[in-house]
Amino acid sequence: MTLQISPRDVLVVVDVQHDFLPGGSLGVAAGDEIVPLINALAKKFSHVVFTQDWHPADHISFASQHPGKAPFETIALDYGTQVLWPDHCVWNSHGAELAADLDVPHAQLIIRKGYNRAIDSYSGFQEADRETLTGLAGYFSERDVDRLYIVGLATDYCVGWTAIDGAAAGFDVTVIEDATRAIDNDGSLTKAWADMAQAGVERVMSREILG
Ligand code: VGL
Ligand code: ZN
Description:
The protein is an alpha/beta fold. 21% of the residues lie in helices and 21% in strands.
């Protein structure tokens, strides 16, 4: 049975940017494989939005800002444990651009996140301090959105956090599993699926939408 997509459903394409594709500074394995699938899925939706990870060059999540620390190590910050990353998605860099092979001309919004130097933001809704909002929930409310279908990179970070915060904001949320790829460090993927299930996030495969 094919899922019917309505005008009150939105496709949220998370962080499909060059730095997260193979060869990028924080390349996700096989991340490029989801781009054609996203292009096909997007044709089923009248409403598509993108998120874009968008950091200043001295962002606190970069290992390069913490002498003696290496990427994928963690540090304690005011708002909790922060994974340190290779420099990625720096304002105006090629790596920060949306993937060139995305073909979604009808996308209606690109929401940037992670632009505050001292706070990371995996979620499209709120920053890692769990306080600072991006405005995305308000946008979806004004646009009469009921359900979010989420795809993109990476399953265990920005996709997962966006899904959980979307559910917390009162939307129905479904992740299209095969249109995501994961970083999967230190058990992060297993944990992310468990946290999403706990939050009531549903999980489908793209064929259930594409038919
Ligand atoms: C992401 C790590 C750091 C993501 C963004 O898009 O999943 N992961 N910044
Ligand atoms: Zn980032």
